[in-house]
Amino acid sequence: MDLFLDMLKEDTGTVEAHLTLGNLFRSRGEVDRAIRIHQTLMESASLTYEQRLLAVQQLGRDYMAAGLYDRAEDMFNQLTDETEFRVGALQQLLQIYQLTSDWQKAIEVAERLVKLGKDKQRIEIAHFYCELALQQMGNDDMDRADGVAEKRCRRR
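Given the sequence above, the corresponding structure tokens read:
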């Protein structure tokens, strides 16, 4: 594997091969190897801007597969301002926030997706408000739970 990584440092023509190899490792459950390949890609000074964004995207997916949600979040946040990557990055962030029960952030991301034409998210937003209210109730914060429910009703 070190040979492949050394090749990348010398020849950026192998970028696609490295992306594919990293994806193969991830799909086989060898996430640590995928992370290593995609990190090396990202750090390569000779990448085009587009190639670097692809490496960021794949590294985010590697981190997701490894359960490193904070790192995955950082990667996908880098892509939300890039038109070609925006929807996919927001969908990945939404998945992270659902997995980590960060309902407020899930609501914010789902609302951004609705603005981008992903109307299916409207139903999920209602669900996220319910989850947020339940979370507040579990924290014995009934005032905040009532506020969340009231806020959602006013938004309709």
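The radius of gyration is 19 Å. Try to locate this feature in the token string yourself.
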